Amino acid sequence: MSVTIERLGPEETSLVANRIAEAFTALEVTYWLVPDASKREAVLAGDFEILVGHAMRHGMVYATADRASVAVWFTSVGEPPPPPADYDARLAAACGEWTDRFQHLDELFAANHPHPDHHHLAFLATQPGRQGQGLGSALMREHHAWLDANGMPAYLEASSPRSRDLYARHGYLAGEPFRVPDGTPFWPMWREPVGR
């Protein structure tokens, strides 16, 4: 199956954030982040909009041509990217009473993030009805080709055993998981470039 991949610009930030929120509301960690199921997807979308907008300036955002699947990468080469502008205020506006939980997750991610030069796959998300069709894999292969050609490693945090196993099939090695307060794990995963 041939999948057309496109790099997106800032005008599609909301679309990407909404696609990620739609896909991630089923993840176990989101039940801890936003306990109120009726507000979960909207709160997640608000948080993701901040991060996707930041990736438009400090990384790369890709999607399948039909926008069913999206990938958000940050480049961490030399100095890591700066935090998003007005991040604390924007996070509080997006996450409301659950802001402290998102801040806690940010701190966990920062404490476990590696320091060597790499590209960070912050989000890979596929519309729920389209999952399992190879769209996420196609997005990874597209960027991995550039990483391999340029000798650049990659890093991500897998949020479920299913995603951990998917990433392992694409060359990522899982480290010891770290956990949010309710025990839900994230697996830090690192991929060395192939052919170097």
Provide key terms for this protein.
single chain, 196 residues, 8-stranded mixed beta sheet, 7 helices
What do you see in this structure?
With 196 residues, this protein is an alpha+beta fold. It contains seven helices and eight strands. Strands 1, 2, 3, 4, 5, 6, 7 and 8 form an eight-stranded mixed β-sheet that branches. A hairpin with a 4-residue loop joins strand 2 (59-64) and strand 3. Helix 3 packs antiparallel against helix 4 (87-95). The protein is globular. It starts with a strand and ends in a 5-residue tail after the last strand.
Overall geometric form: globular
Helix content: 40-55%
Give the terminus-to-terminus CA distance: 28 Å
Helix and strand content put the structural class at: alpha+beta
Describe the biggest sheet?
Answer: 8 strands, mixed
> Stretches where pLDDT falls below 50 for ≥5 residues?
none
Strand content: 15-25%
Radius of gyration: 16 Å
Number of strands: 8
- Please, what is the average pLDDT? 95
Q: Supply the number of helical segments.
A: 7
Order of helices and strands: EHHHEEHHEHEHEEE
How is the secondary structure organized here?
Layout: E1 5-7, H1 13-24, H2 28-33, H3 37-58, E2 59-64, E3 69-76, H4 87-95, H5 99-112, E4 118-126, H6 135-149, E5 154-158, H7 161-169, E6 173-174, E7 178-179, E8 185-191
Parallel strand pairs: 4-5
Antiparallel strand pairs: 1-2, 2-3, 3-4, 5-8, 6-8, 7-8
Helix pairs in contact: 1-3, 3-4
